[in-house]
Design brief:
This protein has 620 residues and is of the alpha+beta class. The chain has 27 helices and 18 strands. Helix content is 41%, strand content 13%.
Amino acid sequence: MIFEWKIWIEILMIKGGYLGKFLEIDLSSKNVKKHYIQKDFARMFIGGRGFAAKLLWDLTTAETRPFSPENVLIVAAGPLTGTPVPGSGKTCFAAISPGTGIYGDSNIGAHFGASLKQAGFDMLVLKGQASEPTNIVITDEEILFKDARPYWGLGAIESENQIRKDLGDVTYQIATIGPAGENRVVFASIQSEHRLAGRTGMGAIMGYKKLKSIAIRGSRSIPIADPKNMFKTFQVASNYLTTHPIADGFQKLGTFGLTEGVNEKGILPVRNFQEGYTEKIEVYSESFYLEKYSRQKSQSCLYCPAACEGVLRKDLQNRVRPQYESVVMLGPNLGIFDVDNVIETNHYCNEYGLDTISAGNIIGFLMELADRKLLKSFNGEQITISWGDGDKVLELLKKIAHRQGSGAFLADGIRGVLAKYPAFERYSLHCKGLEQSGYDTRALPGMTLAYATADIGAHHNRAWVAYQELSRPHDAKELADLVIFHQHIRPLMDCLGACRFPWIEFGIDTKLYGDFYTHCTGIQASIDGLLFASERIYNITRAINVRKGISRKDDQPPTRNFTDPIPKGPHKGKLLKKEEFNKLLDTYYKARGWDANGIPTAATLHKFGLEDIARSLQLR
């Protein structure tokens, strides 16, 4: 158990990082309970995604449906959230995903998580369903439920601005949904300060619960066990990042600047992942972008010198610079080579509350079906969209967000579409029902493995090994180990409450995170110890999915990886062989301590102190 009042004395032994409390909020009854967190629970599951995963195992069952009062939405900060660590603004949102039906989570940056901790809490557990649209307002330890009907129907950005204005205090940090969340589009996002918890449909869970927003303001200081050494370590990290050769370019371009390089590598999604490479990349080049959008203002998340977010020039007010995934999924993947259009579609995805990756993926899927004349109408509406038709994309986004006409066809995500039209599977790009993010992996068996075995579905944030894989030949064991390492280090950042960019983009020494954790919490830890805990958490999310019926049959890449050779670019003619992939999957399972069907063994779960999960899954 993690919530026993008697153990408050024990949690105080952790000197910093954790506040030691969380709120259980029942939206049906408007009941609020405060709970305390045991020290051993904090040690074992770290925070953020780790806390969320364990609670989802404990509080849901195999029968829990995403859109049901029994599904809980966990909002969890990490021990480093809000502390002097580069990019320490991260907060995890987690639930059983409406898009996949299995474990789902998504992270958001900015300042929301820090505010949660300053109000005195590490986590919120949201249960039930409100009877009317509701806003939750947390001011230190005071929790109020407010009528959200005046904001229902407003965009996510618009409603955040209006709610803050009506609260009369600019210091409130607010997470909101747009019409897509209200209408339960299964890839709806949650927005705060133009940052998005985009993947796995957490915005739809808020919409189901009739929760328009969560506003938080706190006045507490976040405790740090060893402030002197904490700030010393921060200075080392900050100096490294600000003097790094890519620092200036990262501030000017963010991850937009990756687009050209990914195309050169031949792994760019073009026209629903059919091509892998385009000759028209110039409009997405660094020089073209900087010449056209020279007037922009960088903005950063908490304690982050990288400042990868950018607000564009005056005549594009309220338009943020799209990041790589948004650029490629709403651009080349749709046959669109017009940056102005991508900026607009990105903006409206953010305002409607739509995940740009899933939106671009599923619209590309529809474009290919239309191009092949496989689907001519839906819901009585003719489907006339074609490659490069940016205006139609803008129209379709609105229809998806409001579940209107042909947009209703796509609002249930790729899994919903294929349930109605299973013959279209070979044109879909997904794993476990989550639409694939922006890398063509037909020439990359390791990256294919990363997508196929990711606990939330085909998302690169669990393991991005593409460039390392391309750097030299790897055998199956090396690839499996590389993917597994990434599946521990990247999600570890989501547990700690820190951005992964300082490591994945700038190459900062990962040992610093063991130092940060030790100085912050007073708990002696190394990066190896934290990675062991992250592996424990990966086994919990796997167990949640196994309980939902996930096994080897689901750890498979899109059909296109096996059937359609790459038609152009540096990997022209390449194709992944099914036999090769299955051997790689066997190697991966063995390295993880899972059986041939992808089920964690009892011995593996016991190694991580998860005997209760082994018993529940009836493993021996």
